[in-house]
Specification:
mainly alpha; 13 helices; disordered C terminus
Length: about 290
């Protein structure tokens, strides 16, 4: 089985072949208006590291830490526009769902050597991806409102709330590991959300390649993030522009690599071994 470096290199190569799909992670990156504003307003030198797993559409922000004046809880630009958030958040969730469903389905089309069916995929997988997209908002919006006692959208987190925050971080890491394959299995198995999540959990509990890929991806983000942060944050205007565009290509490559990996380790995926393991220029890919 190819190691992580071979997989990510293959994913990036295929991303170059299907650059049109990189528009989605670029658009997603631009939705984080508050991050762009923080970078533009920042004056100084900022360094940082991040890590994480490819749970959804990977953007530049998975690799970049954004400077802030303190530790605060917020759920992005829509929540900061309360009370308009009750309108903007549902609209944003629907838009993100449509793009995410079309994006993952089209990656599957690309790897099958088929024409993109973005709109058809968006309709076909809309409901399961709606749940996946809405879940983070269901947690983030109450947190931003101070419901959990972690501070509001304009307030810093108190010391007393740090244990709760740390517990939430641990839970987030565990959940991310257990279910990071879910969106890929939705389109690979052409199945429902519960079945995809159950299979992701099964693969996670088995460990092996699933765990190794998770560790490899987390380390990949950890290694890339200091350089990405240095460029995006510390080079005024141009750094953010280059970061968003380059992040679209990098994110697409990461999603493609993960799609191929999940197909490789999941016996129920409706693809062949050749489709999942051969190099991008192979003539033996699944048709």
């Amino acid at each position: 089985m190819p190691d992580f470096r071979a997989r990510i290199a293959d994913g990036l190569a295929r991303a170059g072949e299907h650059a049109a799909l990189a528009v989605v992670p670029v658009l997603f990156a631009l939705l984080y208006v508050e991050k762009l504003q923080s970078i533009v307003a920042f004056d100084g030198v900022h360094l940082g590291v991040r890590s994480g797993l490819p749970l959804s559409v990977v953007t530049v922000w998975q690799f970049v830490t954004v400077p802030s004046s303190g530790v605060s809880v917020n759920a992005g630009a829509p929540v900061q526009l309360l009370p308009l958030a009750f309108v903007t958040v549902p609209v944003l969730v629907v838009a993100q769902t449509a793009l995410t469903a079309g994006y993952f389905g089209s990656i599957r089309n690309a790897l099958d050597r088929e024409p993109y069916q973005f709109v058809a995929n968006s309709r076909r997988y809309f409901l399961p991806f709606l749940v996946l997209t809405a879940l983070p908002y269901l947690v983030a919006v109450p947190a931003a409102l101070g419901v959990f006692g972690l501070g509001s959208i304009t307030g810093d987190i108190g010391v007393a709330a740090l244990p709760v925050l740390l517990l939430g971080l641990v839970v987030s890491v565990v959940v991310s590991y257990l279910f990071y394959a879910t969106p890929y299995l939705l389109v690979l198995r052409d199945t429902g959300l519960v079945a995809a999540a159950r299979q992701s959990y099964t693969l996670a509990v088995q460990g092996g390649p699933y765990a190794a890929y998770a560790v490899g991806f987390a380390l990949f983000v950890l290694v890339v993030s200091p350089f990405a942060t240095a460029v995006v944050v510390n080079i005024p205007f141009l750094g953010a522009l280059v970061g968003v565009l380059a992040g679209g290509y990098l994110g697409l490559g990461a999603n493609v690599a993960t799609m191929r990996f999940v197909a490789d380790v999941d016996p129920g995926s409706s693809v062949t071994t050749n489709w999942a393991a051969d190099p991008p220029d192979s003539d033996t890919d699944h048709e």
